[in-house]
Amino acid sequence: MDGTLWMYLALALTTAPPLVPNAALVASAGALAQAGELSLPLVLFVVAATATAGDAAVYGIGRLGGGRARSWLARDARRRAALAWTGDRMRVHGLPFVIAVRFVPSGRLIGGLTAALVDYPFRRYLLGAGIAQCLWAGYSVALGYWGGGALGGVWSAMAVGWAVSLAVAALAHLVARRLSRSPRPASAGARRGAAGGAPGGVPPIP
After folding, report:
1. Contact (Cβ atoms closer than 8 angstroms) between residue 109 and residue 82
2. pLDDT score of 156 more than 80
3. Residue 137 CA to chain centroid, in angstroms?
């Protein structure tokens, strides 16, 4: 297997699972595409498609192992709060929130599991995840492509990729904090929660 195939394989293996740092690798792939060593359309396809496939797998794990997923989320107060918060917003805002949550730290994992646990329709979730991953792949690869040409090399592109990824994560975190302070609408699920059921329409966590 030649070097270019190894690079495509590395992109796929590091992009499909959530929580795997790959900003530098994606930026490097963009820089290599600018240098003519990789195909830019193929890099974009591999990054977006494998990331979307990984999101679909997280959703499937949440549906198949709902009880275990709830138990994992329930072990930590922050994860439990994240489930409740994400479930509320997903029900209220729908597809736009599914797209936006991808850019929040750990958003791929929490978003996919929450969508499964609150029975958000899979096709709509996959559509939102696909749009989000295409946006993410576009700017991440473009940064490497631009950095490789304008700044003169793969290392510069990697530095730009890391810096912008951190900036986007910080911005998403600030937006998430602002949204978390906004009043939550009184839904039927919330009223059931006041009567002793699960808050915000989120399934009860044992």
Report:
1. no
2. no
3. 11
Q: Distance between CA 34 and CA 52 in Å, rounded? A: 24
Q: What is the pLDDT of residues 37-57, one digit of tens each?
A: 899 999 999 999 999 999 999
The one-letter code for the residue type at 84 is A
Report how far residue 194's alpha carbon sits from residue 206's, in angstroms, rounded to the nearest whole number. 18
Domain residue spans of the chain: 25-183
The whole-angstrom separation of Cα 181 and Cα 38 is: 45
Q: Which two tokens stand for residue 58?
A: 């997280």
Provide the 8-state DSSP code for 206. -
The length of the chain, given as a count of residues: 206
At residue 158, the 3 state secondary structure works out as helix
Question: For the residues of 38-66, what is the DSSP string, one character each?
Answer: S-HHHHHHHHHHHHHHHHHHHHHHHHHTH
Residues 120 and 118: their CA atoms lie apart, in Å, by 6
